[in-house]
Amino acid sequence: MKITIGHLFPDLLNLYGDRGNIAALTRRMQARGIETEVKPYGIDDDINFADLDIVFIGGGSDREQLLVCKKLLTIKSDITQYVENGGTLAAVCGGYQLLGHYYQLENEKIEGLKILDIYTVQGSPRLIGNIILDSDYIGTTVVGFENHGGRTFINSHKPLGKVLYGYGNDGESGYEGVVYKNVVATYLHGPLLPKNPVLADKIIKNAVMKKDASFVLSDIESTLENTAHDYIIKRFLKK
């Protein structure tokens, strides 16, 4: 079994330690004997999505998002086909916003890929702080940190989770993130996956099952990851 991760534009979209998510996925696969290759792509590189099992898009500032979106729109049909055919994609913060219909800034609208039935509008103040979700998607809690001015609104998808502590997509709905097919999109960073091994394994499983439905993920040591996760739960939910 070999899994190839395509890390899109890490030189532009690495605002929140997103390489930590790649490291977490890689470590957890290699611990199970799964061969792993990471392919970083720059803004001028050609991307063959048929070669990729997991695609990761991180977060960046509005300026970086504008640059990236222009590139993504040139390959919109390729990345849409990848998602619709069951490809695994994880997107954080700015990457999350770019998958929707648009991101409305104060004086400019960033056109999105329209892969997700969502849209984002710039708001004030920024929504900043630790956040905890109750996620039906993985059957447990998800923890992270959010720092976003955008308010994202879901039209027809399920959220990643219900907010137990923090703000979430728009600070009012009580929900955070989106899941669609094998796409997981969220504002949670810090990075996200080292503190949420169950979610990391769900992403891995989605990719592995597409290649071999009979493959079973073995249990691996996750004491450090679970300790980091549980610390956030105990500190902010007082449990």
UniProtKB/TrEMBL annotation:
Q: In which pathway does it act?
A: Cell wall biogenesis; peptidoglycan biosynthesis
- Specify the superkingdom: Bacteria
Task: Establish whether keyword rRNA-binding is in the entry.
Answer: no
In terms of PROSITE patterns, this protein maps to: GATASE_COBBQ
Task: Keywords in alphabetical order, please.
Answer: Cell shape, Cell wall biogenesis/degradation, Glutamine amidotransferase, Hydrolase, Ligase, Peptidoglycan synthesis
Task: Please give the catalytic activity noted in the UniProt record.
Answer: beta-D-GlcNAc-(1->4)-Mur2Ac(oyl-L-Ala-gamma-D-Glu-L-Lys-D-Ala-D-Ala)-di-trans,octa-cis-undecaprenyl diphosphate + L-glutamine + ATP + H2O = beta-D-GlcNAc-(1->4)-Mur2Ac(oyl-L-Ala-D-isoglutaminyl-L-Lys-D-Ala-D-Ala)-di-trans,octa-cis-undecaprenyl diphosphate + L-glutamate + ADP + phosphate + H(+); L-glutamine + H2O = L-glutamate + NH4(+)
Q: Which residue ranges does UniProt annotate as crossing the membrane?
A: none
The record's listing under Gene3D superfamilies reads:
3.40.50.880
Family per record: Belongs to the CobB/CobQ family. GatD subfamily.
Name it: Lipid II isoglutaminyl synthase (glutamine-hydrolyzing) subunit GatD
| Organism listed in the record | Qingrenia yutianensis
